[in-house]
């Protein structure tokens, strides 16, 4: 090496003997690896003879973890210029069963042998397993893992204080792996069979011929690798086991103690490792048997996240096959050779379960989606705009239909986008799983496909023409709403892509419209509305209740907050969040995903609107304090996951609006916050919280800007209600708790404090003079819009929610 250094101009410096502190970087990394290795050994209760595997696995894991010293990249990514994959990684030291071909010619010999997972061999696509029976190391590709089962006894309780490494030939004490499994009764969610193709493989590119694999070749999705002979038998253990109690400092977190299962009632399995189980905060006793069945179906059925997961279930394989057959029957494409100079876009599969009103699965829907984000404007597409139903319109239509006692039904259009005609020349790769070997041809799209930039525009035009041909008219307030009037018959059709709500007062005419639409499109009649855009709809004697229980539970599960301690309010009072340099950053991707999902949860949860809107300001650079505030929102959701809004049948049809502001509420910009809440006969149909675009010089000015925004919403809602047959004959009451702002609205005199908001002044006064709006005072404690402009304590928040008509049908008695 000395010649190499000399030839390349490298000056070599060595450390003095026995002074490791001179090589601090390497010594610190040694400590990091050994600390991780010790944690792996202690967690798996492994004897010290396996110290080498612990160290190798620790290095393997560290090389795949992001590091701030290299700009949050992984050492693996720096070395190989691509991100590592993690799907193949498993819990170190857990019990496994690996496939053995060493049967000595006996066809009836056991093929699955027990072993201990001890890491990842270098250069081999497989797992390193310690064979318990033969006491030797093997490498296997086909392995079933029990990731919460560790069969070695606790080494720290055996009194082994010898630090000498045990030779690999020495036997080790092992608990009976059969008894271990029987005592645990169940395996964790990560348990499953692995066919290791290595992290280099992209499972999305796996081809299965032009026909999907048959159901007989698919793995049983319920097979957890435990045969019937290892069921929950009452067999005494070899070693006594002490009760595992949760330390107090872990009360707010989910820990991984294996839960016990009531095999007589498997559906009621509950993780007893948390002192705050979800069953304490959600109940189904208030629902009919049919609705309970529906809720159970949408809760328990799991939709695949990707092509690999779908291929494990014959139902989804059949769904993909049917989708391809439907596309070919519709002449969606022709198989051609890609012309020179053209490029083909890719596609992906999306999976959705459609339900009947009684909770039965209507169908397993596999949708082929083009990756339209790679299209080029002007070459692959031109017009793209297509309206979808506003959530305010959805709530308003349902509120009106409830008060008028209309029929409310739901339709689903099969392969809606395929009905649109495609004028541009677009090529797409043959879908995953249906590409023949050595076939370089592509699909030339003849009709629109989901995911294409122009697909929604083409479908909207097609469906609009069909409804106009049935004497419907397009709403001027919302172009996704279509109305039919003839004498005393009224029908409203609201479309959101391929999901359709139909409400009306004449069931026979509604059926006629369905039949006429079915002549042009493949339409499924799903009956009375139960589940729309993730919103659960329940009918009560008081009216219609909209909630997002399943969506809330999914958020808690995906964020690991199922067992968190609940909170009685979503955000602390007077909390002023900013960006402090000493506040450490957090995972921006996770923060943005949580905020995005919480934003949609506002569709039925006005109580979290202020909290989520405030936290969404920091998605560009989230810090620890912001993530802690998001955690508070999740803890609040844990306290009432089934909470929703009541669209009451009673209390008339008058529109009432509450307006409020928080002067200088933003500590970063000193801008104020606008909040308004609109109720139709006591039913909340529209709400909004938003930071104002400019700084207000006084609280009156901030309140007046909020009033102007509220009046804009009032004008639109009155327009929409008029089209739905609910005209507002009297001025809409606008409640404001600021006297100065009300005086500005009713007083035509300008002065120095208001001349710069002259446009808003004229806008509001004009609507007051035309008898569309009238301002009214209200006590601050009764101001419902308060929950949209500031953090509230538990008691006042509950008081306002009760006044607003927020209910929780799922609350335990």
Automatic annotation (TrEMBL):
Naturally occurring in which organism (per UniProt): Mikania micrantha
**Name of this protein:** Integrase catalytic domain-containing protein
Domain Integrase catalytic intervals: 1-83
Where are the stretches annotated Disordered?
216-244
Q: Which GO terms describe its biological process?
A: DNA integration
Q: Which InterPro entries match?
A: DNA/RNA_pol_sf (IPR043502), Integrase_cat-core (IPR001584), RNaseH-like_sf (IPR012337), RNaseH_sf (IPR036397), RVT_2 (IPR013103), SH3_retrovirus (IPR057670)
GO molecular function terms here? nucleic acid binding
């Amino acid at each position: 090496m000395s010649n190499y250094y000399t030839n390349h101009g490298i000056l070599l410096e060595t450390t003095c003997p026995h002074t490791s502190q001179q090589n601090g970087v390497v010594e610190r990394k040694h400590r990091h690896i050994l600390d991780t290795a010790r944690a792996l050994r202690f967690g798996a209760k492994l004897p010290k003879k396996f110290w080498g595997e612990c160290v190798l696995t620790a290095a393997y894991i560290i090389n795949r973890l992001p590091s701030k010293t290299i700009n949050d990249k992984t050492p693996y990514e720096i070395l190989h210029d691509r991100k590592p994959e993690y799907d193949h990684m498993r819990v170190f030291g857990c019990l496994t069963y690996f496939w053995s071909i060493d049967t000595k010619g006996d066809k009836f010999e056991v093929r699955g042998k027990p072993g201990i997972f001890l890491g990842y061999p270098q250069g081999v696509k497989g797992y390193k397993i310690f064979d318990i029976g033969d006491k030797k190391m093997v490498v296997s590709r086909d392995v079933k893992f029990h990731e919460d089962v560790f069969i070695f006894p606790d080494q720290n309780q055996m009194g082994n204080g010898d630090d000498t490494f045990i030779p690999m030939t020495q036997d080790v004490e092992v608990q009976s792996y059969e008894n271990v499994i029987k005592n645990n009764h169940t395996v964790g969610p990560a348990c499953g069979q692995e066919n290791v193709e290595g992290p280099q493989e992209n499972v999305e590119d796996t081809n299965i011929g032009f026909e999907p694999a048959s159901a007989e070749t698919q793995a049983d999705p319920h097979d957890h690798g435990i045969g019937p002979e290892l069921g929950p038998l009452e067999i005494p253990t070899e070693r006594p086991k002490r009760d595992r109690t949760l330390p107090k400092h872990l009360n707010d977190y989910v820990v991984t103690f294996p839960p016990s299962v009531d095999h007589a009632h498997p559906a009621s399995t509950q993780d007893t490792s948390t002192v705050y189980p979800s069953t304490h905060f959600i109940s189904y006793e208030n629902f009919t048997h049919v609705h309970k069945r529906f809720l159970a179906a949408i809760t328990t059925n799991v939709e695949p996240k990707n092509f690999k997961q779908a291929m494990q279930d014959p139902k989804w394989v059949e769904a993909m096959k049917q989708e391809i057959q439907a596309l070919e029957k519709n002449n969606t494409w022709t198989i051609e050779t890609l012309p020179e100079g053209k490029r083909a876009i890719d596609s992906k599969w999306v999976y959705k379960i459609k339900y009947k009103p009684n909770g039965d699965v209507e169908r397993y829907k596999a949708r082929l989606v083009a990756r339209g984000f790679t299209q080029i404007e002007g070459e692959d597409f031109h017009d793209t705009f297509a309206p979808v139903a506003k959530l305010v319109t959805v709530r308003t239509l349902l509120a009106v239909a409830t008060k008028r006692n209309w029929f409310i039904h739901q339709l689903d259009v099969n392969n809606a986008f395929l009905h649109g005609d495609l004028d541009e020349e677009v090529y797409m790769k043959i879908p995953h799983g249906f590409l023949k070997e050595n076939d370089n041809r592509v699909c030339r799209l003849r009709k629109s496909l989901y995911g294409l930039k122009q697909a929604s525009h083409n479908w909207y035009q097609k469906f609009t023409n069909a409804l106009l041909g049935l004497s419907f008219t397009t709403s001027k307030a919302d172009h996704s709403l279509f109305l039919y009037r003839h004498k005393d018959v009224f029908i409203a059709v609201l479309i959101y892509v391929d999901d359709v709500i139909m409400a009306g007062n004449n069931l026979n005419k509604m059926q006629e419209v369905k039949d006429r639409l079915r002549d042009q499109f493949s339409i499924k009649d799903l009956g009375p509305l139960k589940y729309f855009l993730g919103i659960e709809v329940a009918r009560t004697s008081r009216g219609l209740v909209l909630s997002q229980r399943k969506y809330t539970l999914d958020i808690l599960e995906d964020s690991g907050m199922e067992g968190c301690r609940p909170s009685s309010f979503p955000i602390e009072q007077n909390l002023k969040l900013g960006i402090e340099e000493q506040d450490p950053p957090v995972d921006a991707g996770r923060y943005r995903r949580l905020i995005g999902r919480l934003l949609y949860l506002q569709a039925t949860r006005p109580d979290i609107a202020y909290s989520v809107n405030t936290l969404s300001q920091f998605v560009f650079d989230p810090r620890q304090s912001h993530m802690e505030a998001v955690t508070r929102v999740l803890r609040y959701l844990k306290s009432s996951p089934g909470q929703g809004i009541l669209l009451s049948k009673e209390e008339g049809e008058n529109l009432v609006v509450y307006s409020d502001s928080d002067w200088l509420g933003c500590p970063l910009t000193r801008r104020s916050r606008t909040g308004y809440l609109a109720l139709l006969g006591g039913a909340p149909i529209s709400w909004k919280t938003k930071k104002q675009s400019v700084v207000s010089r006084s609280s009156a000015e901030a309140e007046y800007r909020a009033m102007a925004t509220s009046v804009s919403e009032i004008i639109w809602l009155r327009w929409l209600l008029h089209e739905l047959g609910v005209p507002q004959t009297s001025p809409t009451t606008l409640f404001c708790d600021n006297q100065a702002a009300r005086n500005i609205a009713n007083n035509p005199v300008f002065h120095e404090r208001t001349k710069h908001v002259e446009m808003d002044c004229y806008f509001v006064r004009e609507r007051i003079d035309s008898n569309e709006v009238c301002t009214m005072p209200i006590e601050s404690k009764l101001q419902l819009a308060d929950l949209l402009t500031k953090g509230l304590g538990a008691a006042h928040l509950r008081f306002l929610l009760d006044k607003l008509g927020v209910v929780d049908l799922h609350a335990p008695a």
